Amino acid sequence: MFHGSMVALVTPMDEDGSVSEASLARLIEFHLEQGTDAIVAVGTTGESATLDFDEHCRVIGQVVRMVAGRIPVIAGTGANSTSEAIELTRCAMQAGADACLLVTPYYNKPTQEGLYRHHRAVAEAVPIPQILYNVPGRTAVDMHNDTVVRLAEISNIVGLKDATGDLDRARDLVARCGERIDLFSGDDATGMEFMLLGGRGVISVTANVVPGEMRRLCDAALRGDRTAAEEINQRIDPLHQALFLEANPIPVKWALHEMGLIPAGIRLPLTPLSESCRTPLRQALQAAGVTLNT
């Protein structure tokens, strides 16, 4: 259903932290021009943790309207409260999103049975296609492959974004449930290998700044052309690293501001990129062929 280079879109903000609708529209057109395959709106890269419920729903609706059916829109609707995740997912469906991306409940540290029941409850309550999202480095909970296999039996659970960076786990997932759900990498550094193993694409932070390159990388990997994929990946690998010099989305928002695409706003408790990280990130951007305003 979904494939290729899917950008984990930032939520552009003015200096006062308010969402910049004009910059959001500019970003979307940038991605459409560059060939991005799908947009993930208000995922964790989109600062979902600091947008309130109404803002969250409003930005999803804005993205859906701005994209106007030209590519799929996947709405981030995960929460560590099952009832809130259901409400956000219902809101996204009503707004016209094509699917929802649900991060595992963070901080609560549910058991594997709790994870299963949480995602099953959301899927049963809202019939929109849903993609699971496992990122234990951020949530302090790890959805085991056995739990993913159980959830893959639910008809409207259609995919998994795996951000563990563990290719052995990816290989096991492809073998056990790759025929039933689509598997996506959520880790840019290992995304190429994930696709060559049988994954269907990458939900990418790097695609925010080099969407054309990420689209070409995904196209090559998905057709099994390792040589072409490696050539592109080698060129942008410094970006995969530099965009995580500080907590995501601090570096990528700074980069987009330097590119003249968004204002400098970011919400506390996140802060602008530290001075010590700016030179290495700027160098990685320039090495990847990105034109900067400064």
From TrEMBL:
<feature type="site" description="L-lysine inhibitor binding">
    <location>
        <position position="84"/>
    </location>
</feature>
<feature type="site" description="L-lysine inhibitor binding">
    <location>
        <position position="80"/>
    </location>
</feature>
<comment type="function">
    <text>Catalyzes the condensation of (S)-aspartate-beta-semialdehyde [(S)-ASA] and pyruvate to 4-hydroxy-tetrahydrodipicolinate (HTPA).</text>
</comment>
<feature type="active site" description="Proton donor/acceptor">
    <location>
        <position position="133"/>
    </location>
</feature>
<feature type="binding site">
    <location>
        <position position="203"/>
    </location>
    <ligand>
        <name>pyruvate</name>
    </ligand>
</feature>
<dbReference type="InterPro" id="IPR013785">
    <property type="entry name" value="Aldolase_TIM"/>
</dbReference>
<keyword id="KW-0456">Lyase</keyword>
<dbReference type="GO" id="GO:0009089">
    <property type="term" value="P:lysine biosynthetic process via diaminopimelate"/>
</dbReference>
<dbReference type="InterPro" id="IPR020625">
    <property type="entry name" value="Schiff_base-form_aldolases_AS"/>
</dbReference>
<comment type="similarity">
    <text>Belongs to the DapA family.</text>
</comment>
<feature type="site" description="Part of a proton relay during catalysis">
    <location>
        <position position="44"/>
    </location>
</feature>
<dbReference type="InterPro" id="IPR020624">
    <property type="entry name" value="Schiff_base-form_aldolases_CS"/>
</dbReference>
<feature type="binding site">
    <location>
        <position position="45"/>
    </location>
    <ligand>
        <name>pyruvate</name>
    </ligand>
</feature>
<keyword id="KW-0028">Amino-acid biosynthesis</keyword>
<dbReference type="Pfam" id="PF00701">
    <property type="entry name" value="DHDPS"/>
</dbReference>
<dbReference type="GO" id="GO:0005829">
    <property type="term" value="C:cytosol"/>
</dbReference>
<feature type="active site" description="Schiff-base intermediate with substrate">
    <location>
        <position position="161"/>
    </location>
</feature>
<dbReference type="GO" id="GO:0008840">
    <property type="term" value="F:4-hydroxy-tetrahydrodipicolinate synthase activity"/>
</dbReference>
<dbReference type="GO" id="GO:0019877">
    <property type="term" value="P:diaminopimelate biosynthetic process"/>
</dbReference>
<keyword id="KW-0457">Lysine biosynthesis</keyword>
<dbReference type="InterPro" id="IPR002220">
    <property type="entry name" value="DapA-like"/>
</dbReference>
<feature type="site" description="Part of a proton relay during catalysis">
    <location>
        <position position="107"/>
    </location>
</feature>
<keyword id="KW-0963">Cytoplasm</keyword>
<keyword id="KW-0704">Schiff base</keyword>
<dbReference type="InterPro" id="IPR005263">
    <property type="entry name" value="DapA"/>
</dbReference>
<feature type="site" description="L-lysine inhibitor binding; via carbonyl oxygen">
    <location>
        <position position="49"/>
    </location>
</feature>
<feature type="site" description="L-lysine inhibitor binding">
    <location>
        <position position="106"/>
    </location>
</feature>
<comment type="pathway">
    <text>Amino-acid biosynthesis; L-lysine biosynthesis via DAP pathway; (S)-tetrahydrodipicolinate from L-aspartate: step 3/4.</text>
</comment>
<protein>
    <recommendedName>
        <fullName>4-hydroxy-tetrahydrodipicolinate synthase</fullName>
        <ecNumber>4.3.3.7</ecNumber>
    </recommendedName>
</protein>
<comment type="subunit">
    <text>Homotetramer; dimer of dimers.</text>
</comment>
<keyword id="KW-0220">Diaminopimelate biosynthesis</keyword>
